[in-house]
């Protein structure tokens, strides 16, 4: 898979409804994963969306998730740009450049779902997420 760039929208406890709405609008295939699938299945917010991805026949990709507990949700600034793929060297290079003069919110490192993931804000105040897919093998 080559690298992909797409919007990533943060919601407050209604990501499932929003992503299902966008699927109705744009068509395509929607996949949703909950916080409970990767953590405490009975904990607060376990049924909220940790990651959702809509891929449409027109080639659009839209990602979204509920804001995790403890993180601030700011309507109007709740969209980030997502870079993802499996070319680790390319994506780490983008990460290094994006974080130069910016601020790292989540270090680029292996996460509970197996991929390397990081979040940062670049020097212009734009939020970025970088996800390097786990190598299959």
UniProtKB/TrEMBL annotation:
Checking Pfam families in the record gives: Glyoxalase (PF00903)
Q: Which residues form a coiled coil?
A: none
Q: Which residues form the Glyoxalase/fosfomycin resistance/dioxygenase domain?
A: 5-129
What is the protein's name according to its record? VOC family protein
Source organism: Rhodococcus spelaei
């Amino acid at each position: 898979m080559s690298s992909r760039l797409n919007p990533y929208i943060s919601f407050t406890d209604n990501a499932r409804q929003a992503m299902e709405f966008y699927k109705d609008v744009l068509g395509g295939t929607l996949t949703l994963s909950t916080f409970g699938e990767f953590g405490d299945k009975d904990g607060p917010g376990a049924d909220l969306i940790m990651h959702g991805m809509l891929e449409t026949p027109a080639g659009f990709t839209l990602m979204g998730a509920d804001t995790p507990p403890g993180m601030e949700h700011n309507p109007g600034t709740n969209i980030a740009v997502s870079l993802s793929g499996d070319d680790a060297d390319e994506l780490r290079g983008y990460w290094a450049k994006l974080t130069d003069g910016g601020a790292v919110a989540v270090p680029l490192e292996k996460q509970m779902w197996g991929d390397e993931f990081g979040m940062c804000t670049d020097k212009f105040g734009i939020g970025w997420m970088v996800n390097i897919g786990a190598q299959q093998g």
